[in-house]
Design goal:
mainly alpha; 79% helix
Amino acid sequence: MEFIWKIINWVSRLLQDDSGNPSSKRVIAFLSFVLFSYVAIDGDEVMARVVAGVVLLALGITIPDKFSKK
């Protein structure tokens, strides 16, 4: 049971921004990735491409935030 809590804490820290608040862009990217995994296993190629585009878009939006001066 302790292992599950470690995973949950790791995922929650992964989805936080630098100030410790949940990042909506990271949450969308994570949920889209989970959806992409499900769709890829299901075998729907068109839907998999759409979801992959959303994942890449969500991750691409977060990249400039990391390197911009605040």
